[in-house]
Amino acid sequence: MFEITLKFLDAVAKNNSTEWLHTYRDLYQQEKKRFSDFFWKVLEEAKVLNPILEDLELRDCIYRFNKDIRFSKDKKPYKENFGGILAYGGKKSWYPCFYFHLQPGNKSFIAWGVYFPSQINENKVRAHLLKHYEIREKFLKDKDINSYYILDDARHQYKTTARLKAIIEKNPVLKTQISPLLKEYWITDTYWKSIEKIDSIQKGWEILQQLAFNKDRWFSHKFSDEDVSSPNLYHEMIRAYKLILPVLKFFQDAYDWPEYNS
Predict the structure, then answer these.
(1) Is the residue at 13 inside a domain?
(2) Which of 21, 168, 172, 173 is the most buried (most CB within 10 A)?
(3) Domain span at residue 40?
(4) Which tens digit of pLDDT belongs to each residue from 145-171?
(5) pTM for the whole thing?
(6) Which DSSP string do the residues of the chain spell out, in sequence order?
(7) What is the pLDDT of residues 219-258, one digit of tens each?
(8) How many domains does the chain have?
């Protein structure tokens, strides 16, 4: 599938300059088209599976190859990967998304989740998780999902439980809807006091990490160079999207909630 594309991207990594890319512009256009054609097929099938994507066009989903180097110490002008995203509103959206990253050196992956949402949407996701924590627990215990995707560390985090406590304090309706397990600890002042009320320290940490500290909720599955070179890659992508679609829809539902006070 992407054997030549990987070689091209490897060459970009070794010769990342405007002069080099201009010299091999025809090759760049060829491999850009190869990636775009592949992702278009994925997008068309995803629209059938998830109608919230029906207005997306390919240009909404494919990331630019040029880098914005205005505020970066790394002045290389081009990315060394191709990337595409499936999310309501496309690549500029804060909505729950499904992302494909193609990069040589066994660095390709797919990922899904909520990544660095706006403050309003973060409040909605946090409230949705509080209200429907049992549903999220069901997804977390799903053997098929857990055997395929791993939970990545959140890149954006809070250092205290203040955000969690504030949203519940200012939205009292959540107090009557959250799990009894959660009611035991959200009002406590420290993490260690809170987990004393929960049977498992690991369980207590997982709950608190997701609900209090993390801004991102991000899961991924790695692909080897052999995987992305396989003619079966399209079918694997669709299988991966179908597997996680119920969870994506769960997070999409959060964005339909009214705005919560923060």
Answers:
(1) yes
(2) 168
(3) 3-116+135-152+222-254
(4) 888 988 777 676 777 677 777 777 777
(5) 0.84
(6) --HHHHHHHHHHHHS-SHHHHHHTHHHHHHHHHHHHHHHHHHHHHHHHH-GGGTT--HHHHBPPSB---TT-S---SB-SSEEEEE-TTGGG--S-EEEEEE-TTT-EEEEEEE-S--HHHHHHHHHHHHHTHHHHHHHHT-HHHHHH-EEPPPSSB-SSSHHHHHHHHH-GGGGGTS-HHHHTTTT-SSHHHHHTTSS-HHHHHHHHIIIIIBS-EEEEEEE-HHHHHSTTHHHHHHHHHHHHHHHHHHHHHHTTSPPPP-
(7) 899 999 999 999 999 999 999 999 999 989 988 888 877 6
(8) 1
